[in-house]
Structure formats: C-alpha cells, structure tokens
C-alpha cells in the first residue's frame, strides 16, 4: 500500500504514526494470527506506538532492575485521580480497590464473591465473547437480555431476564459492559440509575466491566456505574489496557461500592499476585502522564468513525453502521449483503481482511461483524476497499 503512513515522530495523531511494514513486524495476536496478505482489523489491539511516558516508565524500571513484585497503591491512586478529573467522580476510594491480573480474570473473581456454582449471570447480547466463555467455564449460567433495536439496553428485556434469574431465590449477577462492546454505546447516568434500581428490585448484583471507559467521543461523558444512586453494592473492573494499548502488560483494578467493601475484602490475597509489576508501572504512567496521548488517540478515533461511515456509504451502502460514542470498535450489520450468518468468513476468504465474526457475540450477532477502528485512515480505507471487493 503506497498510501500507508510512515514513521513520523512529529505526527500528533498516534494512529498516523506507524507504517504497515512496521506493524507487520509485531509478534502479537493481531498481526500473527493470519497470513501476511490479510489485513487484520479484528482483535482489540491498536495500531499505535507506545505513549512516550509509558515507554519511559518501563525503560526506567528495567534500567533499575525494578522487575520484582508489585507493592503499594500507585495504580489505584492514579485511577482515583483520573476518575476525579476526567469523569467528575470523587467516589473511587483507594481502600475499596484490589489489584487483579486483568479485567476478565477480575470479573471471574467478582462473580465468585457474589454468586455460586450454577447461578445465573445476565448479559446484554450481542456482547464481548469472553463473557460467555469465562462465565460458563466457572460453572455459571448465562442468561441473555438482548439489546434493543437502537443497540442500547432494552429495559423490558433486562427486567424479564432479572425476573427469570431471580425466580428460584438464589444468587444472581448482571455483567454490565460499559461502554458496550461491540456496539460502542456509552450508557447515560439515567440508564445506569435505572439499572441499579432494577437490580435492587430483583436482588441482582451488578459487576461492571468498564475497560473501555477512557475511550469516548468528543463531547461524550462516561459515567462510572458506581457513581450513580443505588449502585452502592456494585463492583466494577477498570484498566488502562484498552485505552493505552497495554494488553500485553497485565494489570487491572477491582473497585467496590461502599456496600460491597466487605465482599471485596474477602478476595483471596493470592489474586493480587497476578498483575505484572511492569504492568502496574505502565498503567500508572498511562493514567497519570498519558492523558494528552489519549486525547490524540480519541480524536483520531472520532475521525475514523466518520471516515468509516463515508467509506461504507460510498462502497458498501447496504451495510448498516451507526457511529457510536464509545470504544474503538464498529458494529456493522451486513445482513443486507446476503453473506449468511458469518459475513466475516466471506470478507476473509474473498477480500483478505480479518474482522471479528458477529456470531461469537451471542444472540443478535448473526450477520454482523466487528471492525477495529484503531488504525490509520489509510488502512481503514484499504480494509473497506477489500470488503467491497468481496461482494462485487
């Protein structure tokens, strides 16, 4: 691709910084799962260089040989400050946090605290596939509450799922994805308050996955679940992983509302051994010193949302896409193309572009694909060109 961006250290948008050749030298899952002729826009890795403050923090630690076990609360302190300044939430109490290896393993540990084997866990489908995988692997039952036609929480469906999940009088949980993956919906304070009220009515414990929280569109406010009235007994998982592309540097935080503090205190001490010390150093640096970098990435993602809408209108007008306010993921309804339940398979085989298959996201995912927007405009343009060629 002659139009692929080159390495330019003075380019303010991190999404413009790396060439395709540079990206193909990476050894991570995104770039090594498929052959080199495939353009990968699937798994949630960003095509960006590491933010300079994070790189400095890691290299300084390595230079010191500071590669031992983590200690103290620097990550939680940095997250509390970030929440206060970015989200206007000063209720993140460091003493009600716990380090966990990553968000999904943290979710497993939170669900163990509030449910038992065989208990139901409600999810809003279509939703992040590991919700199904991890919940069933830990011997809980998934209960689906499908999203509405507007790709937001359908409170009628949610109440029906809550009623079913609580019918036998046992313990049940609601695994809330906020912002929602794959649709990108950023839940409003009113929606989250309604969730808390409904959960209280049916005795459902809410565990919120807020890993994509820092990645929202310009003018959009992310609302932490634990900040709304009625969420005092909730639990949340947060991480700098997605927003600063740190999936390979494991670390996350579990946060408890005031009424869930005693439960979080029962978390086995050995769980806190899972995060990497270098991961905690990296995530702390991201939250404290990587905010300008984050703003630049979010601006680039905003631009890519609009670019994708324009490209689809020109090349694949049958595909339905609503630019969302959260995450760097795009949820595309490809059913009008007539490619069956798994259009991602056709785009891969005929267009040599890898997208995430909607079928993995549960009910409502058939006929859809998820596309990763966190790439350069040149690669996004090439991806849509290839997709169009697959249905020509």
What amount of the residues lies in strands? 5-15%
**What is the element string, with H for helices and E for strands?**
HHEHHEHEHEHEHEEEHHHEEHEEEH
* Mean pLDDT, all residues: 96
Straight-line distance between termini? 21 Å
How many helical stretches?
13
| Helical content (DSSP H or I, runs of 4+) | 25-40%
State Rg: 21 Å
The total count of strands amounts to 13
Could you name the ranges where pLDDT drops below 50 across 5 or more consecutive residues? Answer: 1-8
Helix/strand-derived category reads alpha/beta
Task: Please summarize the sheet with the most strands.
Answer: 7 strands, mixed
- Write down the overall geometry: globular
Strand order of the largest sheet: 2-8-7-6-5-3-4
Structure description:
- With 392 residues, this protein is α/β, with parallel strands linked by helices.
- Helices cover 38% and strands 13% of the residues.
- The protein has 13 helices and 13 strands.
- Strands 2-8-7-6-5-3-4 form a seven-stranded mixed beta sheet, sandwiched between helices. A four-stranded antiparallel beta sheet has the order 9-10-13-12, with helices on one face. It has a two-stranded parallel ribbon with strand order 1-11.
- Helix 3 (52-64) packs antiparallel against helix 10 and helix 12 (343-351) crosses helix 13 (377-390).
- The longest helix has 25 residues, at 291-315.
- It is globular, with a radius of gyration of 21 Å.
- The relative contact order is 0.17.
């Amino acid at each position: 691709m002659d139009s692929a961006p080159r390495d330019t250290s003075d380019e303010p948008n991190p999404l413009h910084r790396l060439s395709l050749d540079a990206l193909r030298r990476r050894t991570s899952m995104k770039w090594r799962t498929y052959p080199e002729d495939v353009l990968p826009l699937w798994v949630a890795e960003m095509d960006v260089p590491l933010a300079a403050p994070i790189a400095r923090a890691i290299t300084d630690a390595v230079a010191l040989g500071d590669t031992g076990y983590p200690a103290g609360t620097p990550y939680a302190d940095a997250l509390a400050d970030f929440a206060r300044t970015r989200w206007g939430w000063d209720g993140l109490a460091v003493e009600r946090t716990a380090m966990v290896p990553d968000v999904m393993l943290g979710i497993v540990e939170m669900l163990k605290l509030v449910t038992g084997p065989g208990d139901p866990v409600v999810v809003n489908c279509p939703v992040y596939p590991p919700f199904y995988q991890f919940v069933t692997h830990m011997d809980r039952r998934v209960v689906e509450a499908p999203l509405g036609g507007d790709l937001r929480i359908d409170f009628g469906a949610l109440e029906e799922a809550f009623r079913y999940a609580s019918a036998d009088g046992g313990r049940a949980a609601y695994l809330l994805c906020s912002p929602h993956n794959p649709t990108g919906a950023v839940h409003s304070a009113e929606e989250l308050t309604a969730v808390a009220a409904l959960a209280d009515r049916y005795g459902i414990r809410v565990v919120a996955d807020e890993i994509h929280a820092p990645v929202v569109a310009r003018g959009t406010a992310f609302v932490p679940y634990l900040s709304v009235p009625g969420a005092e007994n909730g639990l949340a998982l947060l991480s700098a992983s997605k927003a600063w592309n740190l999936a390979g540097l494991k670390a996350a935080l579990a946060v408890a509302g005031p009424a869930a503090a005693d439960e979080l205190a029962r978390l086995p001490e050995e769980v806190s051994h899972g995060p990497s010390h270098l991961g905690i150093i990296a995530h702390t640096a991201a939250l404290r010193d990587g905010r300008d970098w984050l703003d630049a990435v979010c601006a680039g993602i905003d631009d890519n949302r609009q670019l994708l809408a324009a490209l689809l209108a020109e090349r694949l007008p049958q595909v339905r896409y609503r630019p969302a306010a959260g995450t760097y993921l795009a949820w595309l309804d490809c059913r009008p193309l007539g490619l069956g339940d798994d259009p991602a398979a056709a785009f891969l085989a005929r267009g040599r572009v890898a997208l995430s298959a909607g079928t993995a996201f549960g009910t409502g995912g058939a006929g859809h694909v998820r596309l990763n927007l966190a790439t350069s405009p040149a690669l996004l343009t090439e991806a849509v060109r290839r997709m169009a060629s697959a249905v020509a």
